[in-house]
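Support request from a user on the community tier.

User writes: "When I paste my structure tokens into the form, the page sometimes reloads and wipes my input. The last time it worked, I copied everything first. Here is what I submitted, just in case something in the input itself triggers the reload:"
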């Protein structure tokens, strides 16, 4: 049985993440993509693929859940990137 479709699905998810404008959404999409890659690793019995992507999934989802939103500052203020 071919599990190539799981790898292609994971690739499509990862590519989709490049269109995410919000950092939290980006991390969550990449976390789900890494989870799909881990599932592909399980299907093909590839421990390096499984371990690497479980780690990436964990970090991506953890950082997306613990992200603090940037402060908007006073009304009409422009973001300069300096603090």
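"...and here is what came back when it finally went through:"
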């Amino acid at each position: 049985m071919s599990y190539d479709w799981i790898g292609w699905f994971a690739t499509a998810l990862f590519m989709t993440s490049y269109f995410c404008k919000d950092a939290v959404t980006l991390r969550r999409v990449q976390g789900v993509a890494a989870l799909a890659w881990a599932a592909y690793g399980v299907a093909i019995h590839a421990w390096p693929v499984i371990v690497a992507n479980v780690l990436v999934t964990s970090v991506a989802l953890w950082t997306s859940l613990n992200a603090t939103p940037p402060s908007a500052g006073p009304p009409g203020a422009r973001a300069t990137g300096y603090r």
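Agent notes: The reload is a front-end session timeout and is unrelated to the input. The two ends are 55 Å apart (CA to CA). The mean pLDDT is 88. Escalated to web team.
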